[in-house]
Amino acid sequence: MASSTTSSALYSRTEDVLAHLPVSGTTKYGKGATIYGPETGSNSIYLVVGGKVAISQVADDGSEVLLEIVRPDELFGETAFLDRPRRSERAMAIEKVKLMTWAISDMEDLVTKRPRLAVALLQFLANRNAVFTKRIESFATEKVERRLARSLLRFSERLGSLEEDGSVRMTPFTHEMLSRYVGTTREVVTEYMNRFRKQGYLNYSRDGIFLHRDALSDWLNKRALAAAEKSN
Amino acid sequence: MASSTTSSALYSRTEDVLAHLPVSGTTKYGKGATIYGPETGSNSIYLVVGGKVAISQVADDGSEVLLEIVRPDELFGETAFLDRPRRSERAMAIEKVKLMTWAISDMEDLVTKRPRLAVALLQFLANRNAVFTKRIESFATEKVERRLARSLLRFSERLGSLEEDGSVRMTPFTHEMLSRYVGTTREVVTEYMNRFRKQGYLNYSRDGIFLHRDALSDWLNKRALAAAEKSN
Question: How many CB atoms lie within 10 A of CB A164?
């Protein structure tokens, strides 16, 4: 899989954290199981050992916005550092997952004993913060079509596998999940995905979505360049 | 000024950090001065001692998205924790400001010597992330009118002063800044601000914008309630 700045930067952070964390007991969850949600809350930091976890923000009206898909060797649950934990976040196993867990009180204790862990966690949080910032930028300046293209590129980088023909296979990734990341309806995602397919940026098969990353990335960058030239 | 959960939670975090930070030299900036930007980058963590600082994300096309307005006793510059600092952030003094600064290498050193500082910084970053998460939720689920109302409530809470008639005076806050926070044009902000004024949610005078917080907040909550009922 082609690696990129964002993905490798995030990965190196997380490696750092892992090097300083003691082994903890593991818990397994079946596909579709809720790890925590508005009903239960959470007071722990989690490490994904196997599988993938969807982190969502539950809006006032009950709708869910997909914040991130966390993959093996990555952490989640950092809202537990807040002393009034937000009850608006949900973590769900989108396939069978295995997690390691540390109670937030133990984690704070560990941090005071292992100072390099503290620095690693600060870097991890700063990185999460940078990812959210890029997303706010995209929401504030781009329409659905470009937001969707950007999301496909990001998820193919993080969750895809490179095929022989140079395309990146993304699975499992439904239009429903994409719509909850991009902030639109499933119908609109389907419409643009069909358009991208006709333009040759992706293919479908029973095995998933196959994305032609370079072509889609070129399209996104060309349009940004054109916008920058226009604004000068 | 009426305090709220978000505002007081953020404040208590920041107090924590301050209690564990050593005094550092102060630097002054005039109104409109750039503290750091894509041209210069930054390798420091800053504390606002006096005045207010606007943090913006500079998009690919050169346009700027307002991320936060940082007020006295609050920190900024946490992107310096990334080992590849992002050059896409700008910090600008929106009035005369006085800052205390710590090089990121010194800060990492301090963290290893003062473990409670580490925990305080982790809480601060987790809080910043929670604020960004709420904003992503708003972008993904709400149209401009509601995003604008929410932004007015948030900034009046953070930057406003309570008047005798119960309204909150917000100054200095231009439509231009609001548009860069909400993710729309200045013209659209002006249109909705006029609508809010006609509906009695705010007044203008030469001294700034006077917001009737409770009325606007009721309007926002009623509509959320209606949406939740509709979705059930």
Answer: 5
Of A11-25, A136-150, B119-133, which range is least confident? Answer: A11-25
Q: What does the mean pLDDT of chain A come to?
A: 87
Beta-carbon separation of A81 and B122 below 8 A: yes
Q: Do A130 and B86 touch (CB under 8 A)?
A: yes
Give the minimum alpha-carbon distance from B34 to chain A in angstroms, rounded to a whole number.
20
Backbone dihedral angles phi then psi of residue A91, each to the nearest 5 degrees: -115, 125
Amino acid found at B30:
G
Q: How confident is the model over A124-145, as pLDDT tens digits?
A: 999 999 999 999 999 999 999 9
Distance CA(B90)–CA(B94), nearest Å, equals 12
Strand B53-58: give its sheet, edge to edge: B34-36, B89-93, B53-58, B64-70
ipTM entry: 0.89
Substitution target in A61, A64, A75, A105 with the highest count of B β-carbons within 10 Å is A61
Write the pLDDT tens digit of every residue in B189-229. 999 999 999 999 999 888 888 999 999 999 998 876 676 66
Enter the pTM of the model.
0.89
For testing contact with chain B, the best of A139, A143, A222 (most B CBs within 10 A)? A139
Examine the pLDDT at B1 and tell me if it is beyond 80.
no
